[in-house]
Amino acid sequence: MSILRVDNLCRRFDRIQAVDGVSFAIEPGEIYGLLGPNGAGKTTTISIIARLLDADSGSVVIGTGKGDPRRQLGLVPQEMALAEKLTGRECLAFTGKLYDLSGSDLRRRVQQRLADVGLQDRADDRVAAYSGGMQRRLNIAAALLHDPKLVLLDEPTAGVDPQARVYIFEIVEKLAAGGAAVLYTTHYMEEAQRLCHRIGIMDQGKLLAEGTLGELVAKIGARRGLCVTADGLNEPVATQLAASLECAEFEYEGDNLRMSVADAQGSLLAAVRSADQMKLALRGVSIEEPNLEAIFLKLTGKALRD
Asked: Which of the four, 47, 58, 150, 225, has the lowest number of CB atoms within 10 Å?
């Protein structure tokens, strides 16, 4: 049974259709990524799920749909929701009381969550003295105090250093391994590709496609890439080599020629033969699997960084 079901969600701000007919579901133990550029509608979608915004139309069901859904979810917003004058321990204790936690149960949960995010040694330092990455981790701990079944993380690694980013990845993976359903928004392709079991690609308020990486590749008919590296590669030589492989789509830069091919293994052998016939000083030939960048470009006609 799905922990979260979103059906035909819509929300408009004046003339901007921020969310336009978005539907998806997340199962227990699944990390579902919403991938898209800033302004794609990811944060608005999460805000509606968290009951911070009302939808114009559509529905959101969390768990069985009974009781207060906010008790079943934990929200990690983009903006830090921390009282900097409090210590890390005090900040979590205050948050716990908002969920009617108290006494030894609250103290146990606070200690456990501090350990989960690696802050037990800094628990009694003021939040203002924490680094950006530490504050992000404390923000996550605050969202997990009440053991939510659904965790919403909105760009949780924004502005953190690489070490803190890896720590956050490990926290998210442990959440899913423990049975929580995780909705993870990001505009970093490498994050979505590493963490997410399924990915929904958003742009201009629409969910353009969703599925595993393999399913997305199949849906758009993405082809594998063949990369040839050779000394002295230039445009005429690159064009001739691509033509010998009957490859219409190619690009070259410096000594590297990349081609889109249907039969990667067969094209690899043909490329070696053709390079030998053309007397090219071949340094390497490799197969490149389709990735999220290629999928996003195919779906939107633009790179995600655009």
From this structure: 58
Domain ranges of the chain: 4-218, 223-289
Helix axes 88-98, 103-116, angle to 10 degrees: 130
Q: CA angle at residue 175 from 188 to 24, to 5 degrees?
A: 60
Give 64: exposed, middle or buried? Use CB within 10 Å, 0-12, 13-18, 19+.
exposed
CB 150 within 8 A of CB 165: no
- Angle subtended at Cα 235 by Cα 234 and Cα 238, rounded to the nearest 5 degrees: 85
pTM here? Answer: 0.82
> pLDDT, tens digit, for every residue of 264-305?
678 888 888 888 888 888 888 887 777 788 788 888 877 776
Q: What is the DSSP string of 83-124?
A: -TTSBHHHHHHHHHHHTT--HHHHHHHHHHHHHHTT-GGGTT
Evaluate whether 8 touches 59 at the Cβ level (below 8 Å). yes
Residue 195 in tokens: 């963490």
